[in-house]
Amino acid sequence: MPANMKWRIPVVLAVLAASAWYAFPLSQRISLGLDLQGGMHLILRVDTSKVPPEAKNRDVTGVALEIIRNRIDQFGVREPLIQRQGTDHILVQLPGITERERALKLIGQTALLEFKLVSDNPRLLERALKGESLTGFNLAEDLEGSPLLLDRDGALTGGVLADAWVEPGELGLPQVNFRMTKDGAQAFSRLTGANINRRLAIVLDGKVQSAPVIQSRISDAGIITGRFTSQEAHDLAIVLRAGALPAPVVVEEERTVGPTLGNDSIRAGLMATAVGGALVAVFMVAYYWVAGVVAVLALAMNLLLILGSLGYLHATLTLPGIAGMILTLGMAVDANVLIYERIREELTAGRPLSLAIHPGYQKAFSAIIDSNLTTVVAAIFLYWFGTGPIRGFATTLITGLMASMFTAIFVTRLVFDLLLSSGWLKRLPMAHLIRQTQVDFVGKRRVCYVFSAVVILAGMAAFIQRGPQRYGIDFTGGLLQEYRVSRPLTADQVRATLAKVGRGDAVIQEFGSPTDWLIRTSDDTEAEIAQTMARTREALFADYGRDAAPELVRIDRVGPTVGKILREKAWMAIAWSMVGILLYVALRFRHFDFGLAGTIALAHDVVVAIGFLCFTGRQIDLIVVAALLTIAGFSINDTIVIYDRVRENLRLARKIDLPAAINLSVNQCMGRTLLTSLTVICEVLALYFFGGEVLRDFAFCLLVGFISGVYSTVYIASSFVITWRRMFKPA
User: Where are the domains of the chain?
Assistant: First the structure.
């Protein structure tokens, strides 16, 4: 047994133990994202323009965040997330919430409580009713519709309250009782004692709730009555206890997922993971036999390491995160294929197995490190510019890639060393269906350039022709509702139903089956969104409520400002990832033209994928951007493997010129390229067919990009180095 096994075995066992400790039990270690368990994701903007002059220097957003936190804590939401974002935005996530309208009102209600004296001068009231502006007075109406003239001076606010609770009032209707603070009680006592027999209006957010006559001095308590339901009264008590918001808040982004859709996503994610993993495992064992079994064991450990990392980081597992996990399992095979193909070359050269394994790992090492790190670069920019579930995808992708490098380079090598030292492994048979080709790839570069140009131009034309429709609401803003019905409907039926309530211009799309429908409108104001949702529900229930039972399972709403910001951040993520990859490759291979050619090839694949999305009527949204960056990482991954082989061939055969070295390298790597692409495409197909409709555009984009990646790696990335040198280095 090699001496270094004395420390390698404990390291692997320790990593396995730590991963299992942080991964299990899954339900306690890893939280599910809102897209898997259901709930609400909100981005709130504090409207600081409405802050009173005397509060301009206060941290209004910080004060608002604490008040919202207090309200949500009293509302009883389990494990909410409330965070400040920037100077005037607040992120709120409410897992498992089912009462959407109630939650929005609780969070967004300003809840400014005021106590104002009612003027008893009928002449002033008459002048105010005629439209005359009166200094020191406001015209208002009570709940019965009677006009009231309220004094502006001497008013008290809800800041004097110490507590509020609900009790049954007259006729059994709920009322909200409140108790004053010590200072508040003194101020309230002075106000009521000096104005006995006058009416005192209790005003909430500018609306008079009641205006009783002051019968005697009131020192420390009071009652708010109104037409409250029990739930409304309890919510009012909550917001009064938490305090009024210092400024209005506006919902700029909302993602609400019902529990039904969340459960469906979990089932779809697990099915896609099982099918994709099984396909890869069967392929590896069938093609590499014993080595394939070792690779499958490494993949199982890779999955455990990912789960352990998520548990250690207290990360949230989202549906895109599951997709990232599936993809990393497919991409992890790449490192094993690289190593095994290198071992095969050593065995073919006549070396015994014991002397073939070490150089196989050694020669594959640099390609594995370079290819995985460039993909990590893309994932880092995705995390940096991404939000919500997209960050979950980036986190899973990064941890998965790091885990795959550890299992492929360290763990499988340890297994082989153990098998060799114990005498159990004497041969390493492998299938060899893909022989080394003898194709002049460089000679076909001009034809490929023309073909690529035609495809790219056609895609750009489709991109331009689709106009704003090329983007989902993530990037344009608007309202998206997903309804599920119990019997199939047609688009004409749904459109006719919506036309009855003035929403016939909505974009209607069947979402996977005739029982799931997306309804998209361009509404952006709070009033428009509320009206559209109410009318849509009303129309669907009126026409299909009895026999189709419409269920609202998802709501996505994005303000136009947020949509523009998300769109800019998405393109920035793509651009910066390409710059990062360009610099890494250029520095790693010490030639700018290698980095440039590789970046052009990955840009080619991204543009081709976008073009096919537009051709097929699909839209570009945040999850598609995640797919585009994954394509970039995968494309450069393949390219780097060939670059690494070119560097090696130029070093071993100094008399060979660059075109010959590139042709030789591409032909030598062709088997590995096809094998790796096949395993990853198997995973993507599992995502496409079993991952659910939410991930279907994501999987389609990946499928196009990965196929394009194989083509661009072989015909564009390497050949363009020659073209560049002949254009700018003619000597």
Answer: 39-110, 113-244, 258-430+439-466+563-728, 478-558
Q: Answer whether residue 332 shows pLDDT above 80.
A: yes
Residue 115 · residue 188 · CB < 8 Å: yes
- Alpha carbon 267 to its chain's center: 19
| pLDDT tier for residue 731 given thresholds of 50, 70 and 90 | very low
The amino acid that residue 549 corresponds to is: A
Cis peptide bond N-terminal to 25, omega within 30: yes
DSSP 404: H
User: Among the residues of 289-352, which ranges form H helices?
Assistant: 290-312, 319-348
pLDDT digits (tens, 9 = 90+) for 362-385: 999 988 898 888 888 888 988 888
Give 489 or 653, the one with higher predicted confidence.
Answer: 489
The CATH architecture annotation of domain 258-430+439-466+563-728 reads Up-down Bundle (1.20)
Specify the pLDDT at position 275.
93
In sequence order, the 6+-apart residues with CB closer than 8 A to the CB of 699 are 323, 627, 684, 685, 687, 688, 691
- Secondary element (H or E) of residue 251: strand 249-257
Q: Are 705 and 633 a contacting pair, CB within 8 Å?
A: no
How far, in Å, CA of 598 to CA of 724, rounded?
12
| CA separation for the pair 303, 297 (Å, rounded) | 10
Element (H, E) at 617: none
State how beta strands 39-46 and 81-85 pair.
unpaired
Q: How far apart are CA 423 and CA 133, in angstroms?
A: 100
**Domain pair 39-110 / 113-244, same fold:** no
Half-sphere exposure (CA, 13 Å, Cβ side) for 675?
Answer: 27
Query: Cβ(199)–Cβ(205) under 8 Å?
Result: no
Per-residue pLDDT of 648-707, as tens digits, reads: 898 888 788 889 999 999 999 888 888 888 888 998 999 999 998 889 999 999 999 999
Cα–Cα distance for residue pair 7/553, rounded to 1 Å:
53
**What is the Cα Rg of the chain in Å?**
33
Residue 436: pLDDT above 60? yes
CA 556 to the chain's CA centroid: 12
Q: How many alpha carbons lie under 13 Å from residue 405 in its C-beta half-sphere?
A: 17
- Residue 1 confidence (pLDDT) above 70: no
CB atoms within 10 A of CB 175: 18
Model confidence at 730: pLDDT above 70: no
CA dihedral 150, 155, 158, 160 (to 10 degrees): -150
Burial group, residue 47, by CB count within 10 angstroms (0-12, 13-18, 19+): middle
Instruction: Report how far residue 665's alpha carbon sits from residue 594's, in angstroms, rounded to the nearest whole number.
Output: 14
Write out the two tokens for 381.
């920019």
Whose tokens are 């498992």? That residue is 96
**Burial zone of 617 (CB within 10 Å; 0-12 exposed, 13-18 middle, 19+ buried):** exposed
Cα 674 to Cα 415, 434, 669, 700, 701, distances in angstroms? 26, 8, 9, 19, 19
CATH architecture classification, 478-558: 2-Layer Sandwich (3.30)
User: Spelled out in words, what is the top-level CATH class assigned to the domain 113-244?
Assistant: alpha beta
> What confidence tier does 3 reach under pLDDT thresholds 50, 70, 90?
low
Q: Please, what is the average pLDDT of the chain?
A: 88
CA–CA gap between residue 227 and residue 571 (Å, rounded) = 51
Is residue 280's pLDDT more than 70?
Answer: yes
Rounded average pLDDT over 137-164: 83
Name the fold adopted by 39-110.
Answer: Alpha-Beta Plaits (3.30.70)
| Number of Cβ within a 10 Å radius of residue 485 | 20
